[in-house]
């Protein structure tokens, strides 16, 4: 949707270039994931270096010579640091943002040290993997993910990440909650479920762009009280994409299409757009069914 909208705004008809940008934007979500995951590793490493440094001071206090190492010994943070999937992905993607911007790691460390989550953990006498996991999850959700400086850095680094940050943070929080000391290891997830998943992205983009005029005709007659120019551009794109799925993707259930695009409209369009779009799509489905225009293959697809 955003790629089609960008084509409209720039008056571009170079579908090859726009499709390439679409896939680059998707690929970059993986780098965003790796940057945030690697921040956890770098935070632990930075704290360990700090502990080592102050313990060797000439006039180090007793507490500085024998610091509380609970944080740097956290089993989950060490597991992430030693995880082959994470390390290989970082190397392959050449993600080394925190080596060049370690000041942000120090900012995050300061926020961590000041947090209630951290202080309660450091004062606790419990020593278990489960406690370590709860702590890292809560630390990420309550301190790291909402950190304004981190958000600003990520937004400045790549503007297309603005919409991806919540998605990636939710995924990482879920992974941290499910991480185990043994058994199935922590892994960097794939961007696509399979090759068909990636092909769907390409086909939906191409079929919507190449058939925009025809797709628009499907709903213009269903909006007698609305001039074409009065329909918000985002709403028009959403309707075209939904109708494209209705007519050109027989394996996608009608209800799934409607629900997905209503959610997108609530997030990106006007407050009343979802009601407007739902009414049009509902009427279209009834017409298509009456005229046998809606061909869906498989059970439960209507």
UniProtKB/TrEMBL annotation:
Pfam families: NusB. InterPro entries: NusB-like_sf (IPR035926), NusB_fam (IPR011605), NusB_RsmB_TIM44 (IPR006027). Keywords: RNA-binding, Transcription, Transcription antitermination, Transcription regulation. Residues 194-286 form the NusB/RsmB/TIM44 domain. The keyword RNA-binding applies. Coiled coil: none annotated. NCBIfam families: nusB. Belongs to the NusB family. This is N utilization substance protein B. The lineage of its organism: Bacteria, Pseudomonadati, Bacteroidota, Flavobacteriia, Flavobacteriales. The gene is nusB.
């Amino acid at each position: 949707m955003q790629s089609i909208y960008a084509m409209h705004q720039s008056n571009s008809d170079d579908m090859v270039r726009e499709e390439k940008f679409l896939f680059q934007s998707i690929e970059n979500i993986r780098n965003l994931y790796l940057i945030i995951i690697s921040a956890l590793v770098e935070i632990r490493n930075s704290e360990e270096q700090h502990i080592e440094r102050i313990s060797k001071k000439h006039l180090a206090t007793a507490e500085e010579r024998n610091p509380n190492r609970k944080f740097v010994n956290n089993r989950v943070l060490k597991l992430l640091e030693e995880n082959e999937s994470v390390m290989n992905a970082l190397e392959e993607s050449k993600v080394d943002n925190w080596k060049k911007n370690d000041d942000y790691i120090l900012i995050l460390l300061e926020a961590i040290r000041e947090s209630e989550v951290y202080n309660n953990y450091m004062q606790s006498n419990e020593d278990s993997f489960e406690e370590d996991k709860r702590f890292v999850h809560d630390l990420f959700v309550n301190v790291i993910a909402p950190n304004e400086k981190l958000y600003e850095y990520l937004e400045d680094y790549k503007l297309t990440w603005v919409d991806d940050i919540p998605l990636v943070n939710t995924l990482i929080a879920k992974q941290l909650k499910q991480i185990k000391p043994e058994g199935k290891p922590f892994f960097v997830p794939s961007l696509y479920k399979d090759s068909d998943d990636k092909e769907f992205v390409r086909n939906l983009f191409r079929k919507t762009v190449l058939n925009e005029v025809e797709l628009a005709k499907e709903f213009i007659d269903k909006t007698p009280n609305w001039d074409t120019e009065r329909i918000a551009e985002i709403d028009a794109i959403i309707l075209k994409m939904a109708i494209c799925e209705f007519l050109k993707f027989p394996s996608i259930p009608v209800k799934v299409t409607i629900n997905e695009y209503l959610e997108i409209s609530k997030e990106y369009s006007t407050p009343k757009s979802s009601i407007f779009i739902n009414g049009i799509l509902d009427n279209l489905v009834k017409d298509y069914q009456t005229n046998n225009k809606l061909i869906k293959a498989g059970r439960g697809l209507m």
